[in-house]
Sequence to fold (256 residues):
Amino acid sequence: MEIKDVVFSYDQKTEHLKKVSSVIQHGKVTTIIGPNGCGKSTLLGVMSKNYEPKSGEVLLDGKAISSYKPKELAKKLAVVHQHNDAPADITVEKLVSYGRMPHKGMLSQNKEEDEQAIEWALTCTNLLAKRNRPIDQLSGGERQRVWIAMSLAQRTPILFLDEPTTYLDIYYQIELLELIRDLNVRHGLTIVMVLHDINQAIRYSDQIMVMKEGEIIVRGTPEEVINQETMKAIYGVNVVVRQEQGLGLYIVPVGI
Fold:
């Protein structure tokens, strides 16, 4: 996927994305970080065709996403949004099955393929034992895994996640991020996610894009991107950057 000079505005006055350009590397985990309101989720929305840019374009497999039909795009790209709603009594398996909608036509249906995709999605997310549970009987972390399972049932090569760890305690945050990394490593998914926690972004990403005020300021590997100067320039925070055997790279905020 390639982002080319994307400009976006919600109100036609303020540019919320300012000529953003970047490349999403195939088979890698790319994480977008930056202060609140810098355009992270907005960029993800443009990349998934939820928002139409004022100018510029996003290319997927060399083709502008604006030219993809909805079902065509949904076979290539799945999105897990920050806020998701479903009837409280819907079962896990039923909700996951909705991920097969892009593959259903008026005349042609492949029930066996659908069942295999749903089974695979439930297996990947460790939800087989809870397939018949209503989602209102699940923990927050389990519910988030159901939404990821629904996106996996689409069987797309690309997965977008907008702040997937929001509202989760630290155990479920780590559990979810380990799942995301596993989907990348074992199943080859190209993943783009928005995170707030810088240390989590460092640990679970191959590439990091740092945004501020609607622009990508820097991008690269965690080692290339995360340093005292960048953290001060982007967040206004003084940090100590450390790298230790067994722990890897991490930061410690020490003041403003």
